[in-house]
Amino acid sequence: MLWLMRLSSLITAALLTVVLSPSLQSFPPAEAIRSSHFDGYLRFPAQIAVPDPRARQFAFRRAPFFRNAGDCVARSEPNSSPGNSTVCDPSLVHIAITLDEEYLRGSIAAVHSIIQHSSCPENVFFHFLVSDTGLESLVRSVFPQLRFKVYFFDPNRVRGLISTSVRQALEQPLNYARNYLADLLEPCVGRVIYLDSDLVVIDDVAKLWQYDLRGRTVGAPEYCHANFTKYFTERFWSDRRLSGTFAGRNPCYFNTGVMVMDLNRWRRGAFTRRIEYWMEVQKNGGGSDRIYELGSLPPFLLVFAGRVAPIEHRWNQHGLGGDSVKGSCRDLHPGPVSLLHWSGSGKPWVRLSSGRPCPLDALWAPYDLYGPALRPR
Length: 377
Hints:
Largest sheet: 7 strands, mixed
Strand content: 5-15%
Structural class: alpha/beta
Oligomer: single chain
């Protein structure tokens, strides 16, 4: 049965590649992307974390040239210093992504995919959240035209609030930076799309940006068929003072790796403090008094589950990471696809470098800008 499941996944990936491949060439944003070749290779320090032991022979390539389609609002000086006048431009689409060495390859691929499929790539502004400001020059070299700003997130801001999780990767302070976007970004930024680093966008991100949040603070695809109770411990559900927080709500699971956030409502509602409150409850409980096990997700669920503006599932085909330890591969959920998300412990760049990819990892590979550097002549 295992070989049959893998064959099914391989056939699905092949069919989807055939379906999507025209979008890489004839999708409307292709009118904005005039050059399909890489104009040079760039060398970077060997400290970039890559699972391949030959990492020193690799480098990030420069992204293809891009420009807006004819009906976009004109932009100028794309890589100038991002002062308030630039960031506050109302025509911009704002996207926030974290940058760190471990997931850098994924972040670069995510940005590349967004630009590749955007009708107005020069109108997309990236807000990169980092704990290492040294990555800014790398991003500027790979994406010379990109509009972006780097924001330092101090790990000490949350280190004392983080409790142990089922996976050590979920305990990294930068995972919690999304909780502080309303504080980190300029006050004029009233809306932002938050995206994880392990995904690619295969549709125009402006469609996601334009979703009506219906007066809600957060919009995201919801999965009400999921067993919501498993995200919290027996102790939480047995204590009505805790579980009562969901009274009068119809809470559903949502993945915090893809969210549209109304930062104005967030600031007015002091939602950062509400999330910190639940982190304190968890931290102070400890041991058998823990109320959840899964890192940064449960506090978001406690505050927002049942109060989320629904977004189509096509914008988060999640769970593609599967389990890298067991080598399990996932298939796509039924329905149309606008965003592929390798949430889970397995990451496509790790599996590709190890020579043991899952079939769907072939859909991530076209956006990967990490490859062999040209040797100087």
